[in-house]
Every structure is written in structure tokens, then in C-alpha cells.
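Database export, one record per block. Field names are fixed; values are copied verbatim from the stored entry.
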Amino acid sequence: MKTINVVTAFTLTKGDGEKISFEVGEHDVDDALAEHWYVKAHIEDPAAAKAARAARKGQHPGGDSQAAQSSSDPAADQKPAQPNS
């Protein structure tokens, strides 16, 4: 079972004539359906989807909190002044 993130709503007609409609958003589907070429054309890249889910949770894909990544000193994130030549 895989989670896909549909970015463009679509309807897939399977070989047996069954139609499956997908609205925009996340869906849990079986692996074969997630790998179907037409499904792939309408979903977000799986790696990008994983990163987006992690960002919504306030984490980087590696699991590190964004807050832990940022410095407590705002001046530390600024570029040093360049001397005039």
C-alpha cells in the first residue's frame, strides 16, 4: 500500500472497465495502482510528497525539526559585511 498525492483530479479506467475517480489530495492505493503510468501523470513526485508531509509536520524529511536547524541568533544567518575596495 502506498500513499499518493494527487495534484490534478482524474478518473482512471482500468482494463476491466472499472472507473476509479481521484480528487486532489492524498490517497492510499495498492502498489500496482501507484505505479500505473496514468496515475503517475497526475500525482506529485513521491519524494516531493514525502518532503511536503514532513514540512507540514514541522520537520525536514530526515526527521530534524526546522526549529532545531535555525540559529537562535538572527545575526548569525546574515552575510558578513564586505569591505569597500
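Remark 1: The chain has a mean pLDDT of 78.
Remark 2: Strands lie at 2-6, 10-13, 19-22, 25-29.
End of record.
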